[in-house]
## 1
Amino acid sequence: MSEEEIREEHRAEEFVKLCFEFFKHLTTLSTAGALVVLAVYRELAVGEWLLGLTLVLFGISILASVLSMMVCTALFSSSDFEPSERLLGWAMLVSAGSFVTGSESFMLFLAEWPRWLNLALIPVVSVALVWLVKTRPPFLRRSGSTSGRGEEQESE
């Protein structure tokens, strides 16, 4: 193995470790969020659809995070399966996206706005978050970015 291959393998291992930590913390946050929603639901004793949506989204986040942690551990097992960065990226998007959308729906429930406004705001905020991730506007970029996308846009 060349030194470059060893460096790339080490970088991939570190990335998987960081992803595992990300999923671990997101699982904790989603579980805590679901418990808060259940406590509010129990106290209010009303069947609000936003609370149900919030619980479903937190559940998706927990499930996606736990499955992703299992995928991350496969790199360090004796199996031949190695998770790709693309697979882990999609897993992060699903986990974080469902957590953020669940948190958003819970905040909208607490705001007690009209139902039509809640229905309009959930997709609008979700689309805005996806746009921010995809386009990486200048205010979200780190200075001195070494990624190809950041350098292209900074030189314009």
## 2
Amino acid sequence: MTVRFVIIGGGPAGNQAATYAARLGAKVTVIERDIVGGAAHLWDCIPSKTMIATGGAMSFSRRIGGMGLEQNEPEVDIELLKSRIEDIKALLHRNIVTLLESQRVRIVNGSARFTSPYSVRVDGLDGVEDIEFDAALIATGSRPRIPDWCEPDGDRILTTRDCYPPKVLPTSVTVIGSGVTGVEFVHMFSSFGSNVTLVVSRQQVLPGKDPEVAAVLEDDFLKRGVKLLKGARAIAIDRDADEVVIRCDDGRVVRSSHAVLAIGSVPNTDGLDLDKAEVEVDASGHIPINHHCITNQHHIYAAGDISGKLPLSSVAAMQGRKVAEHVMGLHTVEHRHLDYDKAASAIFTEPEIADVGLAEAEAFAVGRKIRVTKVPFATTAKALINNDPRGFIKIISDPATGEVLGGSIVGRHAAELISVIALAVTANLRVSDIVESLLVHPALCEALAEAAE
């Protein structure tokens, strides 16, 4: 009997689950209220990385004097930048829709809510439709968190989604939140020439990351003129004519032309009538899942940001694939479960930051013996050729077996280079496997082999 598989949400988790399950023979329906491809993905991730790429090109242009070229200061054309972002979003959206249609996946535009554990009702452009299913995936993503002490106006007090691009480039901007999103916005606006202040609630940016990694980024920020307000937590934002006033809990006050809220996200689980499906939700609004992404209902799955796991598009996509495998019964054969501890992640600042697997602090916290090797990019020919010797590669391994347990990279192309360490961690490779690989010269990846020595 053909499995009727309903997916609520067409982001990375939803479209991966849809295409894979359809290829395996399921009758798949994807319900999406915003944009196929995912709102958080196409309205946040892709636009922000597009702007960061433009900012990175501007930053690089300021260093070309060290490469034997005459240095000229480029200017940002907001309209051209906006057009570039929209073109990329449209192309990615169209590619995803085309792929889904090629697999005979039905796409329904509208908002879904459960009417029972085996049915949903869709309020769409074409009216109301009731759909029954054998299995369902909830993958409705997340939205920027807005605290009760702030009212974004889309003009000067901005959420992240107001920034792609903003109506005008800020002369000065205060970024509230020093996590991944916050530091990316600091880098982006600083590259565009804005005077940037970062409100850091703790004593380092990127709390929870390797302090050595955070220190490199902080140092670069300071060299660019970024002001770091450490140990300060924003408690109020007000408009004062053409300025924004940010008040902190320690009495400090910051004034700037704009402010950006980058203080996390909240899951989109409201409005789904999950109680009618008897699906449990935790206090934060996330849906608890097991290692198969199954909720407390054996035939209903959750993936992506609403699952409370790592909020990464790559993780969501892999969750979607694993859900499709389970729905179609492939978990009964040889099957590798998702190991969230082995997920690679990147931060698109300058320099870039990427890590995977076990971190030094985690190992020390549990008393595990590790071997840590670190090689600065300044020792590699390619970094010098690129006129960008910032950063390093760090590999963490088991001193007894040589197994690669994790690693961190700070520097140019860190997001690509981390893939080598991620593969080693996932496949349980040893440092000798990296050392004995014949890598390209001159290339930044040579530092990987040196760190593995």
## 3
Amino acid sequence: MKLKVAATFSEIIEGWRLVYQQYLKSTLIGPNPFSIFTYPEYIGRNSAVILGRVGNKSVCSVSAVLDSSHLLPLDKCFHDELDGLRNENRKLIEIGLLANKSEKASPFYIMELLSSIARFGVYSNFHDYVIGVHPRRAMFFKQFFGFNQVGKSKKYHGLRDADVILLHASGQDFETLAQKASHAVYFEETDLKFENRFRFARIASLKPFLLIANVIAFVKRTFQRCFSPAAAVE
């Protein structure tokens, strides 16, 4: 498998379509007309999408977003816990939208994807990693990447009230374990060119890119409905 930073809008959609397909199979979401799944916070200049490819086909994907505005997707469920980390002057980077084309995710693929996010953290100078996972998957992230649980398990309204726990890993633990040695993260060369990653702000407002504008509007409307006070009561 070869890792690639999504550098075009079509590559972004490739990754988020894998997420959609996996979440739909898991009944975490319902169908939508674009056949993609993402969060509004990932649509911006402070995010990156990584694709894992075998030949010309994308077989897995992961996304990450920097906490530059103190607003992450996980804030909808774990705002107090994340603020606790921010109050410790942590520079957070959220790992999310992890998807694998195969029904049984390869641990090797997951480890490769997370190592790519460690590189994005180093590139961006954000070194505290957070991720929301189902409780039964927590042990994998704790054992292999040095994550620790923050707070209690909660229901995530945006994913049909699935059980989610918040995990956090400091850069020293995560970046070292993700590549087996910190030297690899900081000094080994790769094909991951984060400076060439697709950034929505460059073209999202231009008239010719109507599909991009429609996707952005759809994602924002969907999550406004999911996390409105009325939806939370229901």
## 4
Amino acid sequence: MSPNPFTNRRARRSARRWAIEAALAVFVAAGLVFGLSNAGSVAAQAPAAAPAPSGTKSSQRAYDAQTAASNPATPGLVQPIPFNHAIHATDFKIDCLYCHSGTDKARVAGVPSVEVCMGCHAQFGGDLEGVQTLTKHWNEKQPVAWDQIYRLPEYVKFRHNRHVAFGVTCQRCHGPVETMDKVQLTKDTIWWPWLLPSTKPQMGWCINCHRQNQASQDCLTCHY
């Protein structure tokens, strides 16, 4: 019985396919072994990842403002973050109510939240030490422990919103904040006809302002 030519042809094709697949398997295995054995050296030769861009460098004015606000010789308290009112209020023309929002509606003025500050400084100022401290508070979800400058006795009920509604400027009580590197108590003394002084923010100073502006001088206006 003569062999079937079609059967022999299929056998040869199967053998050839098996040989090719076996060669490919050996090649792939060799490549994996080589890659694993040289992974350490390849990683060592790879260049280090470039640092994230730090953004635009702050101006010299910004550095000078930070230095002035952190300088113990500058009048005023050194705060946890060297915030400079002069550069914010004068150079950048930021309105008081933008940071101290709600002052025209609430009794107390309060201080801006870290979120308000980061609304601007997430975009610029990252090379300043003060902004880096601010960012650290933001990342750790911690408020800034500002040192209080103005503090009236508990029995004095001073309402910011009523004064703002009447048109009293911030500078009337707080002085020219827009020129200050650090907020500080500003001196202002008035003399009564009987030659007794009253210094801001003493009661006599406030009563004198109320008299000048035809505001109530009733005791219950401030003490209730």
